[in-house]
Amino acid sequence: MNIAIIGTGYVGLTSGVCFSEMGIDVWCIDVDSTKVERLKRGQTTIYEPGLQEMLRRNAEAGRLHFTADIAEGIANAEVIFIAVGTPSAKDGGVDLSYVVSAAEQIGNTITHNAVVATKSTVPVGTSKRVAAIIEERIKARGEKIEIDVVSNPEFLKEGAAIKDFMSPDRVVVGVESERAKRVMARLYKPFMFISDRLMFMDIASAELTKYASNAMLATRISFMNEIANLCDRVGANIDMVRKGMGTDERIGSKFLYAGCGYGGSCFPKDVRALAATAHSLGLNMEVIEAVERVNNRQKSIIVTKLHEALGELKDRRIALWGLSFKPETDDMREAPSRVVIDALLAEGVKVVAYDPEAMEACRGIYGGDIAWGEDMYDTATDADAVVLITEWKQFRMPSWRVLRRIMRGNAIIDGRNIYDRAEVEEQGFVYKAIGK
Ligand SMILES: NC(=O)c1ccc[n+]([C@@H]2O[C@H](COP(=O)([O-])OP(=O)(O)OC[C@H]3O[C@@H](n4cnc5c(N)ncnc54)[C@H](O)[C@@H]3O)[C@@H](O)[C@H]2O)c1
Is position 353 within any domain? Predict the structure, then answer.
């Protein structure tokens, strides 16, 4: 089977590499020719565990190709995925310009019948809009080509993207024709050998399933953050509360962690988009709107904790551990670290930062405004406080004795609740966490 993927970012690249791993012939297309050239040389453009080796292996086997030329990329494709970005628009809705442009390009160049699958996260109605654009462009060329548009939202998590794609909890496909259903079932068959988790539904439901899933996950985070903030006031421990809650099967123990807010390329924009969609239809989604408000507030909690520990922050030297929006990715989009860095810079703080993989991406944003550590201890040297923002594994067990020796001050702000208060305080540190 031959497929094409338009947009070779976090989702497009991972999907393309994983499909090729299953023996499928994949063409990955991107408008960014620098990205395409790098990928052609066998180098990944993002950090995702396991991706580099899998990319090389499949490219060398001749199953994985990269191009900036849409006509070349889709020439023989039975399925063409649209996996371009869908960032927030200024009004909180979705900027669909990349999706529209991909649809126009398909309509302008396609020469054979095919299935077009929207993998980008898009508001209800977008797949229908994509179908109309393609049809209109084909008609304008005087051609007769049949295109079935389906919705196939992606649920992979950055940091575990390969595992999620290779053994998905579910694959959701919104279809309207039997022909498209057959093609999609065949494409995903290699991923369903152990158990069939392929779900067909109508297109609107498929589009909405993606937003509802992300909004639910974001809701759990904001909910736990509110409970954690209450724990701080009443002297309870959020870790205990979480364990007590999570054993209830109806609640479950996953995704119940308090911290300094969610970020990334999906939750913030998808929560906003869901609320905006509802608004445009005269409906207020009050829970969803509160989730966003709570999260925005939570991103500043680190700065509040720093004030509690140090008082005035001007001219202090503050070390930040972890910058990406979560571990095992270099993605800095809407990362809580950015809110913290901006607030600290505004207060005249000397910020020193370190991340195992996101340094390049973060340097692109802050350049010379902050100082960059070589590693976690270099970053902490002479600092008044160390702030853990992103819980990469290497930060889990620092040597408190070394830190005590190299730091100027003694404040530890644990933005992800991963340290043991007694152990940290025993070494003479002032320890602040979120709700414990
Ligand atoms: N990142 C995630 O973890 C994740 C997970 C699930 C779903 N999604 C959704 O998947 C979509 C893509 O997200 P991403 O994080 O991979 O985005 P990204 O920004 O990393 O990648 C998008 C890519 O599309 C390319 N592009 C834009 N217009 C193009 C065009 N007309 N032709 C060819 N290439 C084009 C860009 O150059 C870029 O490389 C979004 O809708 C997102 O919400 C993302």
Answer: yes
